[in-house]
Write a structure and sequence with these properties.
The chain is of the alpha+beta class and about 180 residues long. It has a domain at about 10-125: Gcn5-related N-acetyltransferase (GNAT) (Aminopeptidase, 3-Layer(aba) Sandwich), CATH 3.40.630. Helix content is about 25%, strand content about 35%. It has four helices and seven strands; from the N terminus they run βααβββαβαββ. The chain has helices spanning about 20-30, 45-60, 105-120, 135-145; strands at about 10-15, 65-70, 75-80, 90-100, 125-135, 150-160, 165-175. It has a seven-stranded mixed β-sheet with strand order 1-2-3-4-5-7-6, with helices on both faces. Helix 1 crosses helix 2 (about 45-60). The termini are far apart.
Length: about 180
Amino acid sequence: MESGDTVRPRVTIRVAREDDAPTLAAAERAIAQTPGLLVVLPHEVLDEAVAAKIVALGASVEGRFVVAEVDGVPVGHAMLDPLPREAVRHVVHLTMAVHVGWQGRGIGRALLGDLVAWARATPAVGKIELHVRANNAAACALYAAFGFETVGRWRRRVRIATDRYVDDLAMELLVAS
């Protein structure tokens, strides 16, 4: 193996369970330590809120919450969360988190592949939308590789320091004909 090569681990994707919540919340708090990666601050990520989202999406025909594991250890998680109003319930919002230390190893690709395939096979889902920081080139490239298109840009949307902001991109993927 050459210097700089990254080993691609064997990734398993499974549906999230309520008892995953403390681990997933802790991972989000760790990711949120780097300003701008997520739009939440560490103190805003609550175990109970993550557990409630897992339960809600587990009971929904329009939504899905999954965990990526390597050797039984969670290394990432992602969800498709349906918009709440009936007229836009066919639209799901994608949120994805690759846990600290696992970036660049195919975890995001595995999570996104699972969710896109699920959405395409789910009649209730017609479109996936997401927000991504404009400076997150790896995430933008991954989404584009799956066919997502940039449809808008929110300038100075995410504050990462007192006087520092990052633009957010709006991307979408139509999954129903």
